[in-house]
Every structure is written in C-alpha cells, then in structure tokens.
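INTERNAL AUDIT FORM
Audit reference: QA-55
Scope: verify that the stored structure record matches its stored sequence.
Auditor: D.O.
Record contents follow.
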Amino acid sequence: MRVGGVLLWLWMGGLAEIPIVSAQTAGPDGSFSAVWWNIENFGATDRLVDGQRVESAMKPQAEIDAVVAILQRLHPDLLGVAEVVRAPDDRYLKLLQTLLSQQGLDYPYYSTAHGEDPRIQEVLFSRFPIKSEAPFTDDVFPVTLVSPSTGVKMESHFRVGRGFVNAEVEVAPGVSIQVMVAHLKSRRVEPGVVEEEPGLGGDETVRAHEAQLLRRHIDDFIRDHPGADLLVMGDMNDTPTSKALRPLLGTPENPSPVHDLPLTDRFGDWWTEYFEPPKTYDRIDYLFASPALYRRFLPKESYLYRPNEGDATQYDTYSASDHRPLFARFAAPPK
C-alpha cells in the first residue's frame, strides 16, 4: 500500500509534497463509485508526433489536461487506470496523482502491479484506505512457439504481461471490498505463438491464457470468501463474443462467478475503444461484480462516459485517450 504525503517527482522538475489527508469514507448516503479507464500511454514513451515516430516523447499536454478534466467531472472514489508508463521512481504515476489532487481529487492510496511488460502498468487509486495488497505478478502459462524460418516448434512459457492488481479496500469503517485490476494482452500480433484453437490467433491465445489465470484468481477469492464483495475492472482487449474472454464472461457449461455490468452511454452505445487501424468501435473494457456487490449495483446512476452536447474539447475522450471511462455506483454496504 502506498500512502499520500510522500515526496513526488513532477514532470517539469522539482519535488513537491502531497499533504497527508485523513482516511476517507463513503459518500453521505454511504454509496461509493468506481471508474475504469485506459488513459493511453500516460508518460514519456515512443509515440507518433505529427506523423513521425519520436522516442521518449511525453504525452501531449492537451491530452493530459483532458484526462484530468474528465476525471474531475466523474470524481470517482475508486479509480483504475491502464497504460501508466513505468519509471524507476514511478514519476508518471505520481504525476497523475499530483495533477488529480490539484483539482480536488485526492487519492492518498494506490496499488499497482508489475508484470513482464517493462513499459506500462495498471494502477488502482483510492480515496479509501487500502488495507492490504497482494498483486499477482508471477503467473506463467505454457505456449507453443514456431520458428518462422525453419518451422520448428518448441514449448515455452510466458509470464502475464502486466500482472493483476489485487487489493483490499476499506470503503467504510470495518467494511471492505476486494478489487482486482487487469490489462490483458494487446491485439497486436504475437509472432511465433501457435494458435491452440482454430480461429484463435497468437495474440488471442496469449490473451485467453491471461483471462484464464484471472478467472482462477476470481474463483479462488469467491471460494475462500463466500458472500464477499469483489470488483474486477480492466481493459480485456477483446469483445464479448471472443473466444479469448470466455473464462471471464462464462459459457453455459462454465458460467462466470461475476456479473458483467451493463454500462452504456446516453445514446445506448456500448463501445469503449476506437481502434485504429482498422477504425472500429469495440467494447473491450469491463467492470465485473461478485453476486454480493452486484446486488448493490445502481444501474440508473452508472454509465459509460460520453461528453455532453456543447462541451469544451477537453471533455471529449478523443482529446484524452482512445478509450472511454466506465462509471459505476454501488449502494452502501450492509453494516
């Protein structure tokens, strides 16, 4: 668990200190909210700038401003984000924490996970105390690789790319929920990985294994904590009809132990990412709730974010990321 009040490295240089704040509790009615959002390469990394690839280029200031403006509007109690660039001193994670604090969104607690991917990480920020954390960072799975030149196959093992955040959050005195955060394998081609089913390409094969491991952790938690609250959020990088996500979304033979929250925008659209290429709108981001938490899900107060007509550009998700944030509210936990 990380707590505010530590010295933070700011992007433009210098050290600043976030004041230590008192532990927060749920809203006046006892409800609490959660947001999941892939904020697209928050930090310095290789990126296209004016059509040219530039090494270690910072996320444009206009995009950063839009991320902060939209999150300020949503004002969640729990915030899960993907694609925060990793750095030895976590400067980009702490930069985001600082920028949000400057706009009145104080998240004194956070938890993260570091997997095999050395470039990016997912983070859970919380207004509430994080009582414990046990990230899953060492999960491995078998794959079959094939040499593109000789066609020779060999067995190998991959480690989960970004790991899974796994934290216990105290949303009210003596009342906790478990939160898991995931960012599964991207849809970029995974060369050399042999597909394990017809139509399941290399990247989907890797993603399916990661989804199965996440499902195993979900199953373990629900088995060991029957009736407990569990919230799972993440960019699963595949659609509801995909083979790769069957472990999470379930099948008639193997139903999922968690509920997929049905979040739409004000037009009834489900898509969470604009994917380019091939210029498609897909639903690949999800919030899942255990049966106990799902019973307190408030669908009329939950939604997939879309800017209002006439909003300034900074409130448009296209100005911030290629994904849209998901917002869910839950009623007060039982006392």
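Auditor finding: record pair retrieved intact. The radius of gyration is 20 Å.
Action required: none
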